[in-house]
């Protein structure tokens, strides 16, 4: 029987997880009749055959495999149960938490609660995962109820409360977070009576308004912190500098930076990155580079984000060769470039051969392109009408074990339609539809089908 392992998992399995281990799982599932999804009690493992004995099944292996099934919750459950019954693996709090996270991602909250009840031990991460998944599904009351129920496991404390507030602010339910913390929600007050609503809570809410891009509310809340006597710390200033920079007022971010220095607040790399970005936009890239040097002199080591900001500023000013020099300097300083580093340069390059050379350099340096990388390059070449580099990038995507998503397919199909290759475009359109991906409605393809 054919082994049903998704194509883009092959390289992962080969490098991290024993293929025979995965083969055993898929074979065992393919021969079993379908049964209701459940989490049976711990089972005694079957008698192990020699192949089983040669395999090391530990928490790392289980977590890696569950990561592969992040987008297939049913297969994740099957694997979760199978490794327990087949190997007698006693799931850890970490593997339980990962399984709960996958279930929550697909709104399978009843099953997540079954697993929560079955766990021998829960921790704050368990409930942080539950809060995150409830709030990301906009089930705010359910997240609050989950916090209240955490008391059954002796986890209804300030840490869990802060995790709840953080989840609300992360997923743009800041109004509810502010209501719970500062507006004294009468139905919730007894749950938080002993907690101090200090700088940490205010910073979370300020960051929440920032994520919602409600700039006026950010300013109002910044002023409210002073009225409420809240001590603004490094993180408060870092968030509000970002607010000013992203809202189109970088000079105000620079002013805040100077205010911090007067107050004697020692900046960390995150704060420096924010002000380097702001000063680069308002006063120019050379001033930003000088601030980067000052940062190093003061003992704050730049990170990959710092270099990415400088490279992006240089590229936006047409100084691509200097951007390449910064890229070389990163390698010498043992600050490994990431995908975003290369994206900054890709965006400003205008010669296909130069782009493909940088793409090869990226891979040779051990930086794996993301799906966004492939989509960006396919769109770029497609706009220019160059199909050969489009297919070079497409082949590299497949060679690296990545299964194209709807954005990659649509970028390729757009390029083919633009060049009048309707039959080939239609084949890729049908292929993506067969995978359950959403295709754009293209009159050229519809018309062609009618003509047939």
From TrEMBL:
Ranges of Polar residues composition bias in the record: 27-37
Key words, A-Z: Repeat
InterPro entries the UniProt entry points to: PPR_rpt, TPR-like_helical_dom_sf
The keyword Repeat is annotated on this UniProt entry: yes
Repeat positions for PPR: 92-126, 233-267, 268-302, 303-337, 370-404, 405-439
Disordered as annotated region, ranges: 27-51
Similarity annotation: Belongs to the PPR family. P subfamily.
Protein name: Pentatricopeptide repeat-containing protein
Protein source organism: Tagetes erecta
């Amino acid at each position: 029987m054919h082994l049903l392992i998704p194509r883009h998992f092959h390289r992962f399995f080969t490098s991290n997880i024993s293929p025979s281990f995965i083969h055993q799982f898929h074979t065992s599932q393919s021969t079993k009749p379908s049964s209701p999804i459940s989490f049976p009690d711990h089972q005694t493992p079957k008698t192990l055959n020699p192949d089983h004995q040669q395999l090391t099944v530990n928490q790392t292996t289980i977590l890696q495999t569950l990561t592969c099934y992040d987008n297939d919750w049913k297969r994740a459950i099957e694997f979760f149960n199978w490794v327990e019954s087949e190997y007698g693996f006693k799931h850890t709090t970490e593997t339980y938490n990962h399984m709960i996270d996958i279930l929550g991602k697909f709104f399978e909250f009843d099953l997540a609660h079954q697993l929560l009840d079955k766990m021998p031990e829960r921790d704050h991460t368990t409930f942080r995962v539950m809060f995150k998944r409830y709030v990301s599904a906009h089930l705010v009351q359910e997240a609050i109820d989950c916090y209240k129920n955490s008391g059954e496991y002796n986890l209804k404390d300030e840490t869990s409360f802060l995790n709840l507030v953080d989840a609300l602010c992360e997923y743009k339910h800041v109004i509810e977070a502010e209501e719970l913390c500062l507006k004294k929600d009468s139905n919730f007050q007894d749950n938080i009576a002993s907690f101090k609503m200090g700088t940490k809570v205010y910073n979370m809410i300020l960051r929440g308004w920032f994520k919602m891009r409600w700039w006026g509310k950010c300013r109002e809340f910044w002023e409210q912190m002073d009225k409420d006597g809240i001590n603004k710390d490094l993180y408060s200033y870092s968030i509000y500098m970002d607010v000013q920079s992203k809202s189109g007022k970088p000079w105000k971010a620079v002013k805040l930076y100077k205010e911090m220095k007067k107050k004697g607040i020692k900046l960390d790399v995150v704060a420096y990155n924010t002000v380097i970005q702001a000063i680069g936009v308002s006063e120019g890239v050379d001033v930003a580079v000088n601030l980067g040097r000052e940062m190093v002199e003061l003992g704050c080591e730049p990170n990959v984000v710092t270099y990415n900001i400088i490279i992006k500023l240089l590229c936006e000013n047409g100084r691509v060769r200097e951007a390449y020099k910064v890229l070389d300097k990163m390698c010498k300083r043992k600050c490994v470039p990431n995908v975003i580093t290369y994206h900054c340069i890709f965006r400003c390059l205008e010669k296909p051969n130069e782009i493909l050379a940088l793409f090869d350099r990226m891979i040779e340096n051990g930086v794996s392109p993301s799906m966004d990388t492939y989509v960006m390059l396919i769109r770029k070449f497609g706009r220019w009408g160059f199909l050969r580099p489009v297919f070079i990038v497409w082949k590299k995507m497949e060679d690296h074990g990545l299964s194209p998503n709807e954005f990659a397919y649509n970028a390729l199909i757009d390029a083919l339609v633009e060049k009048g290759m309707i039959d080939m475009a239609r084949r890729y359109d049908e292929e993506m539809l067969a995978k359950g991906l959403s295709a754009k409605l293209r009159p050229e393809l519809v018309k062609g089908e009618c003509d047939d």
